Amino acid sequence: MKLPWKPHRPKHTGPLPERQTLERAAARELLTTWEHTRDKQLVDKHLARMNGLYGQGAEERIRQYMREVKRNERSE
Question: Which of 17, 20, 66, 74 is most enclosed, with most CB atoms within 10 A?
């Protein structure tokens, strides 16, 4: 039995190119949550889940992005 033809698509084995964009978006979202609720436990809970979504070390990277956003984009 002959298999149906499928186009060749090489597997992507490197880091995801959009991961940095997604992490920055998560940082903006969590920073906004922190500014409105001041609930550290809630923010920490969401950050703990980020390692599963974006890979090892995501929590630290997102915290750093949160600092950058606060310092550069939300200076009042």
Answer: 66
